[in-house]
């Protein structure tokens, strides 16, 4: 493999938690639990096509990071 070749990214959606925003194109911004390249699951927020074959760039969060975000949002709701 040459340095400029990218290896294939392998993913498995372990749990579809929910749709954050549906788009008229059929794509959805979703919150899921995803395993990337066989690693432990992370919370994942990104846009997906209806078949979950194509995706946009997104953000992945370790479970402790997601807990912190949830706590920050709860604390803000004073």
TrEMBL record:
<dbReference type="GO" id="GO:0006355">
    <property type="term" value="P:regulation of DNA-templated transcription"/>
</dbReference>
<dbReference type="Pfam" id="PF02229">
    <property type="entry name" value="PC4"/>
</dbReference>
<dbReference type="GO" id="GO:0003677">
    <property type="term" value="F:DNA binding"/>
</dbReference>
<feature type="domain" description="Transcriptional coactivator p15 (PC4) C-terminal">
    <location>
        <begin position="25"/>
        <end position="71"/>
    </location>
</feature>
<dbReference type="InterPro" id="IPR003173">
    <property type="entry name" value="PC4_C"/>
</dbReference>
<protein>
    <submittedName>
        <fullName>PC4/YdbC family ssDNA-binding protein</fullName>
    </submittedName>
</protein>
<dbReference type="InterPro" id="IPR017154">
    <property type="entry name" value="PC4-like"/>
</dbReference>
């Amino acid at each position: 493999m040459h340095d400029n070749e990218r290896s294939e990214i392998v993913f498995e959606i372990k749990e579809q938690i929910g749709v954050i925003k549906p788009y008229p194109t059929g794509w959805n911004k979703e919150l899921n639990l995803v395993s990337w390249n066989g690693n432990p699951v992370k919370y994942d927020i990104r846009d997906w096509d209806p078949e979950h074959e194509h995706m946009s760039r997104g953000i992945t969060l370790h479970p402790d990071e997601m807990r912190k975000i949830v706590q920050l949002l709860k604390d803000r709701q004073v």
